[in-house]
Structure to design on (360 residues):
DNA sequence: GGGTACATGTAATCAGTTACATGATTTA
DNA sequence: TAAATCATGTAACTGATTACATGTACCC
């Protein structure tokens, strides 16, 4: 069981495995779920959600069944091996530190090369973008019922909220009081 | 001047451009600078810091000069075109939202599939990792003199500190009070 | 002068992205 | 029935990573 080499599985593999584990889905449904949840922190093009499940079928971690009329799309279901592998991964500690890839921060890092006005407008643009993002997260938060069968996506969202609030405070401070 | 197509330049290109702009460097020196600063948020293998500068030389944004004795390594310097392109990029607003790629959060997202004990130990491991990371950032912060010619890397580090503190609070809360 | 750690690079591979292409369904 | 949009995929490319390979300096 789950004799598949772990090396072949990327974070995106586990993401797909996890989504399919909680509900059998087509690629398009995966795309929709990603767009309204994990996609905020881990984005990728929809084509990945067509290619990756197919790969996982090849590894025996998912199975697929093609509808025999209408759009004839493929519905993916997790296999026993897939579930074993997913749970193994979930229990294994996450070692690599998170990557906070933010072009705004990268620009700030090099802002010694620009003027104070440039820094200020960078900070204001970033601040506005993060306020918008925060509003979106708050709307999602408000839309989740108090009693939900799976509270974990909601918990993850809470970290997103904290992060956005930190960004807003940060860029606000930079805007009003640019380093010099 | 700077007639190079922008499409060919990635974030890593600008990162290299920025580092070389502030000081002519060899690939190894770039590697060291990355490892002690931006690398915390935007990591990549050292081989990228050999391949990318070479590419930028081809685009006319860097120039290189090979030492003629000892290790005969290549020292990269930014060209006028390179500086123009870098400053253009710095002034252009950053549109894409940041990606917070964190395997710990991804595991939490799917933790409905595991036990409460598993969640707790995930949270404790993450909390410990973030406390360690915070201590490292604080040490770096403490090592920076009050009057520094370039305060921007320091400013960026402050966001890193805020982020780590948020993570520690978050995982602490999850550990003591796991969602269910 | 032999071992070890530091330093410098290249080649091959692959995951992820871009771009393209087309089918199905709804709406005007 | 035409247009628009929603849905479903594939092919080609390429940036980034892995793995390899070797050179140089220092230390015992």
């Amino acid at each position: 069981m789950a004799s598949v080499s772990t090396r072949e599985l990327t974070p995106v593999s586990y993401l797909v495995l996890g989504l399919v584990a909680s509900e059998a889905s087509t690629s398009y449904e995966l795309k929709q779920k990603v767009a309204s949840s994990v996609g905020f922190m881990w984005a990728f093009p929809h084509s990945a959600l067509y290619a990756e499940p197919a790969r996982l079928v090849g590894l025996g971690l998912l199975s697929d069944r093609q509808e025999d009329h209408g759009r004839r799309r493929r519905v993916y279901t997790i296999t026993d091996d897939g579930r074993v592998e997913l749970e193994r991964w979930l229990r294994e500690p996450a070692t690599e530190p998170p990557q906070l890839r933010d072009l705004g921060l990268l620009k700030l890092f090099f802002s010694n090369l620009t003027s104070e006005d440039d820094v200020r407008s960078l900070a204001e643009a970033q601040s506005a973008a993060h306020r918008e993002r925060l509003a979106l997260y708050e709307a999602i938060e408000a839309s989740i019922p108090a009693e939900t069968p799976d509270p974990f996506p909601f918990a993850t969202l809470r970290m997103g909220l904290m992060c956005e609030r930190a960004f807003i405070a940060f860029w606000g401070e930079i805007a009003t009081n640019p380093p010099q």
Q: What stands out?
A: Residues 10, 12, 44-45, 47-48, 51-52, 70-71 of chain A lie near DNA strand C (CB under 10 Å from a C1'). The first helix of chain A runs from residue 11 to 22.
